[in-house]
């Protein structure tokens, strides 16, 4: 039997032995460790066989392990020990299932340290031979590898809770809602009818807000973020497409809009405003000086980087005695860079990103609002309102999201139509008048509430989204 050189190796032997004598050991560490986490190649093979057998409902025992090794069962793995004898020794020295989770954690931690060490070795190798690749490329590859380690280590699922604990948590939350007079408990959208229908964006949940281009995804995401921050909620906005200054041009236009004074964000950028409007812009900017709204404007971030930066901001605010981090907004899903794990497989990449963003919500205890593009199928229908089938790229999006909201502006399509005759044109203009400045928020999925459509006022040129007076 090979010497136990470190605790991680002992943990590998103990976990394999426990699985041999009690198959429930596999279930106890499900999702916490995989074959690649084991250091010893023989251990990797055995765990792969054990996991596969358990998933297929087959018994795990000494005979299965030996049969899986085939002719390799007779190979010498240590002086005087064949692989078959080694497996038998694992079973005879096995401990109870109770410590399995600790063993799995030790195995996973040691594996992650090996992965970090491998990245460090890559850096050293490239520094010694700078002609291999430029520094920026080396850094990008190493960051991607470290991101995978971070993402994998944070995706461990929510801690187990008893039915009693969960029940009292539900009662306490219900009493708090009652005491508040039925006020929105999650992060509000800032639209009364939408907040009434959803009770806001709950901590630990992922809200997917999808639309076709030009429907107002960024406008809605920014408007929601701005309202939440000005109400004292901590917001982190990951803008993977636009610079922070461009977003703030929209925000300032939104803040100035009152139905009478209209200064579009295009006019702000072009400097087309009066002296009085300049003063109003300065006052609006000043009101944002201390607003708990942070904009990450670096493009091409991975989920690992998004998670790490959100965690860092959460800790910073907590240490400074500032607001809690309540809302993370990602604009938008299809601009998040996937890890190298599923390179080239777009469906698996999107599935990984979606699951990781859901994991971010649960891990940090924040609401995560993810903006996303929809596929072109709605453009082929006479009624172009989006449906769940229009979610682009992966079925995991609908599955992972706790709430799915689609944005639709009929005005966009009617403006681009042309009546074939005078009567048809008159009909089009009447239709345009009826849908002008209307944005629909269609709740297509909601685990804890109704499926319905809420209409709101939207002046897209000013990024202004308001309750609709009806």
Task: Summarize the structure in words.
Helix content is 50%, strand content 13%. With 470 residues, it is an alpha/beta fold. The strands form two sheets. It has a nine-stranded mixed beta sheet, with helices on both faces. The protein has a two-stranded antiparallel sheet with strand order 1-2. It is elongated, with a radius of gyration of 28 Å. 34% of the residues are buried.
Write a short abstract of this structure.
The protein is of the alpha/beta class and 470 residues long.
- By secondary-structure content and strand pairing, the structural class works out as alpha/beta
Helix proportion of residues, in percent?
40-55%
What is the terminal separation in angstroms?
A: 79 Å
SSE pattern, N- to C-terminal: HHHHEEHHHHHEHEHHHEHEHEHEHHEEE
Number of strand elements: 11
Q: Order of strands side by side in the largest beta sheet?
A: 5-4-6-7-3-8-9-10-11
- DSSP strand content: 5-15%
Extract low-pLDDT stretches: none
Strand-helix topology:
Elements: H1 7-21, H2 24-28, H3 41-55, H4 62-69, E1 76-78, E2 81-82, H5 83-92, H6 100-128, H7 135-154, H8 163-179, H9 192-198, E3 206-211, H10 217-230, E4 234-239, H11 244-256, H12 265-270, H13 275-287, E5 293-296, H14 303-319, E6 325-331, H15 346-364, E7 367-373, H16 396-400, E8 403-408, H17 410-415, H18 422-435, E9 438-446, E10 453-459, E11 464-467
Parallel strand pairs: 3-7, 3-8, 4-5, 4-6, 6-7
Antiparallel strand pairs: 1-2, 8-9, 9-10, 10-11
Helix pairs in contact: 1-3, 1-5, 1-6, 3-4, 4-5, 6-7, 7-14, 10-11, 11-13, 14-15
């Amino acid at each position: 039997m090979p010497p136990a050189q470190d605790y991680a190796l002992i943990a590998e032997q103990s976990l394999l032995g426990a699985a041999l004598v009690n198959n429930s050991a596999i279930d106890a560490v499900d999702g916490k460790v995989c074959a690649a986490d084991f250091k010893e190649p023989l251990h990797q093979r055995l765990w792969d066989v054990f996991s596969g057998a358990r998933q297929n409902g087959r018994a795990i025992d000494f005979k299965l392990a030996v049969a899986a090794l085939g002719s390799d069962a007779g190979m010498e793995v240590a002086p005087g020990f064949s692989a078959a004898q080694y497996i038998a020794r694992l079973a005879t020295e096995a401990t109870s299932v109770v410590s399995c989770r600790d063993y799995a954690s030790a195995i996973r931690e040691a594996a992650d340290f090996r992965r970090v060490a491998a990245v460090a070795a890559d850096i050293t190798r490239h520094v010694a031979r700078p002609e291999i690749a430029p520094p920026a490329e080396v850094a990008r590859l190493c960051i991607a590898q470290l991101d995978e380690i971070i993402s994998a280590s944070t995706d461990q699922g929510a801690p187990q809770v008893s039915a009693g604990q969960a029940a009292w948590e539900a009662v306490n939350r219900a009493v708090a809602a009652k005491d508040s007079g039925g006020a929105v408990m999650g992060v509000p959208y800032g639209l009364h009818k939408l907040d009434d229908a959803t009770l806001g964006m709950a901590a630990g949940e992922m809200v997917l807000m999808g639309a076709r281009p030009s429907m107002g995804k960024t406008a809605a995401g920014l408007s929601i973020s701005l309202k939440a921050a000005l109400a004292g909620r901590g917001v982190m906005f990951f803008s993977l497409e636009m610079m922070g200054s461009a977003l703030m041009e929209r925000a300032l236009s939104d803040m100035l809009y009152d139905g009478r004074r209209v200064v579009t964000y295009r006019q702000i950028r072009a400097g087309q405003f009066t002296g009085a409007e300049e003063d109003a812009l300065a006052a609006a900017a000043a009101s944002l000086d201390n607003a708990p709204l942070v904009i990450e404007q670096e493009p091409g971030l991975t989920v690992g980087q998004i998670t790490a930066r959100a965690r860092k901001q959460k800790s910073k605010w907590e240490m400074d005695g500032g607001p809690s981090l309540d809302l993370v907004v990602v604009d938008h899903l299809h601009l998040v860079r996937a890890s190298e794990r599923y390179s080239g497989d777009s469906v698996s990449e999107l599935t990984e990103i979606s699951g990781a963003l859901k994991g971010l919500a649960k891990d940090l205890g924040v609401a995560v609002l993810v903006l996303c593009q929809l596929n072109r199928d709605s453009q082929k229908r006479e009624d172009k309102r989006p449906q769940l089938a229009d979610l682009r790229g992966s079925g995991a999006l609908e599955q992972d999201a706790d709430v799915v909201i689609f944005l639709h502006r009929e005005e966009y399509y009617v403006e681009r139509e042309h009546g074939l005759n005078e009567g048809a044109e008159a009909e089009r203009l009447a239709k345009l008048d009826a849908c002008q400045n209307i944005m629909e928020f269609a709740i297509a999925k909601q685990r804890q509430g109704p499926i319905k459509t809420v209409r709101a006022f939207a002046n897209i040129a000013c990024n202004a989204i308001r309750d609709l007076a009806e």
